[in-house]
Automatic annotation (TrEMBL):
Superkingdom of the source species: Bacteria
Domain Solute-binding protein family 3/N-terminal intervals: 88-320
UniProt-annotated stretches for the region Disordered: 30-62
Organism field: Embleya hyalina
Official protein name in the record: ABC transporter substrate-binding protein
Entry keyword annotation includes Ribosomal protein: no
Signal sequence bounds: 1-23
Sorted UniProt keywords: Signal, Transport
InterPro entries on file: Bact_solute-bind_prot3 (IPR051455), SBP_3_CS (IPR018313), Solute-binding_3/MltF_N (IPR001638)
Biased composition (Low complexity): 40-51
Amino acid sequence: MSTRIALPALVCALALTVAGCGAGSAERALGRPAAPPAGAPRAPAEAVPGPDTSCPNVLASLRPGGSLPAPTALPAGSTMDTLRRRGFLIAGIDQSSFPFGFVDPRSNTLRGFDIDLLREVAKAIFGDAGPNRVQFRVVRNEDRTVAIARGDVDIVAETMTINCERRQSVEFSSVYFRAGQRLLVQRDGTADRADYSGGLAALPRGMRVCSVPGSTSIGLLRRQAPQVSVIEGDTWAGCLVLLQQGQADAVTTDDTILAGLQAQDHVFTVVVGDKLTFEPYGMAIAKNRGDFVRFVNAVLEQLRRNGRWGELYREYLGTSLGADTPAPPEAEYRDAT
């Protein structure tokens, strides 16, 4: 198979390896630490999961206390008041997950569905979403809950699936997006025409499948497809490069991320198969900041009602996941009205 390299993806992947695909000086993402070594043990295959139900009300968050207060009327001593006095929000992101978090090469600024949601949170705190109001920090998938727990960041918005294991370490906002795990393969007349109806368990023995450590996708891949060769990419853009170079036969992660990868190489790659999982995204916040969780949920409620969620969907997802803009996910809360 000849080697093809989509230059934008390769440049970004290489840049991330060195220092992070940086944004401008006024708005920048801090560097990514080195990836841990490969070789985690694999567990036996299991049934394709739906929503995580091993803990009660896993998707239910903390109910907003009411309508959003004005930035100048935040409760004294609250997390939001503290952040406002500090002058900026520290947010954990991924800048290689187009279209949720990426560096726009035309403006050298961070853009994406997750990025703009964080700007909406900043706007609700500070009254504006200027470039100095959010300090973005690149956080590896496997470090997201740790970064929140030890206070490195105030919030994480990084295509992060809400599940019971993570809920033990962090609190989540209400669900702001629903995705599902699928496969990205080369459009070579063979891989793109294969039958994927059997899911991961039916993938051919020895198939080289790339995913990123710390993601729910790689965990499911190892549990359900012990017959494949798991390749760990440092980033999703890095997995795309391995697919383009012929060092991987497929990439597996959420269909939202795969749609972004395909957009970078739409002639030679294609998303295949049905959804293998249910992946509800939430913003992660420290467990001792319940007031901030309620505040963020109030921001999300406002975005659902005023149409801003739909605007962001059309801007960043367009028709890549379907012809119509879906309704935003309904919020679930575990406390009384």
